[in-house]
Amino acid sequence: xxxxxxxxxxxxDWRRHGNCTASDVNMHPDDSDHRGEQAAKKVCAGCPxxxxxxxxxxxxxxxxxxxxxxxxxxRRNLDAQRTPRRCARCRDVFVPRVxxxxxxxxxxxxxxxxxxx
Length: 117
Ligand code: SF4
Ligand SMILES: [Zn+2]
Known about the structure:
By secondary structure, the chain is mainly alpha-helical. It is built from four helices and two strands, in the order H-H-H-E-E-H. The longest helix has 12 residues, at 105-116.
């Protein structure tokens, strides 16, 4: 039997075990602060509760700061990859690779080719 990662509010106790609790690195660097992002990602490396942290951030659509070694944009892309959506052009269902992808691959390719002509 597998145990759900987040079953009740008390499960938030996992936060106490995060590497970031014992670090003074800013885990919410500005988007343009590449060095700050890399420093925060290093804190997450090997964090024993990274899975819980990632699951919670996706469940809550929390795209702020670095969590589980990923930026908000990287987590949004991960989230997008598990949620099928309808193509804006042909209406077929497809699984996006990035969160802002609105067309299926064939339609996106056709659109690119038209743009180059
Ligand atoms: S994965 Fe990163 S942000 Fe999440 S608890 Fe661990 S160190 Fe903190
Ligand atoms: Zn399509």
